[in-house]
Specification:
There is one protein chain. This protein is of the alpha+beta class. The chain has helices at residues 7-20, 56-66, 81-85, and strands at residues 73-74, 77-78, 92-94, 97-102, 105-110, 116-117, 122-123. A 3-stranded antiparallel sheet has the order 3-4-5, with no helix packed on it. Strands 1-2 form a two-stranded antiparallel sheet.
Length: 135
């Protein structure tokens, strides 16, 4: 059948993702003779000076200064994102949560609310999804 996205659009998406993560835009071909791309894409600025993203560099600096919030965990397991973002979790049920394959290995996740309470400085972790979190 026909691929869901054509080659040109795939290449555009890949290059956009590489730029977003401050990685050279060249698509690796296995040929070590690839030359470095011109710096015109970010006006010659170093990647940590904001580049094409404008004030994005400032926001990243603020996040690293404060320390990035850890993902929600309960009983030593990460909280299931699917459970919190969809009406029904599509993963395989497992105890008080689910399990699914991640990078070739089965991982278990907890089904509980991942809303972060700024005043309490912690996640809710009650047995409801964020969609059903009390206001």
């Amino acid at each position: 059948g026909k691929p869901p996205i054509d080659f040109v659009d795939q290449e555009k998406l890949l290059k956009r993702a590489l730029r977003k993560h401050k990685v050279k835009e060249e698509i690796p071909t296995g040929d070590d003779t690839v030359e470095e791309a011109p710096r015109s894409a970010n006006n010659g600025k170093k990647p940590n000076q904001g580049g094409a993203s404008g004030s994005g560099g400032k926001k990243q600096a603020n996040n690293s200064a404060k320390g990035k919030r850890q993902p929600a965990q309960k009983n030593g397991k990460l909280v299931c994102i699917d459970y919190n973002n969809k009406e029904q979790c599509p993963n395989e049920p497992d105890g008080s949560g689910c399990k699914k394959e991640v990078n070739g290995e089965m991982r278990s996740f907890e089904h509980c609310c991942n809303v972060f309470n700024k005043q309490a400085k912690r996640h809710c972790l009650q047995p409801h999804s964020r969609l059903r979190h009390p206001a």
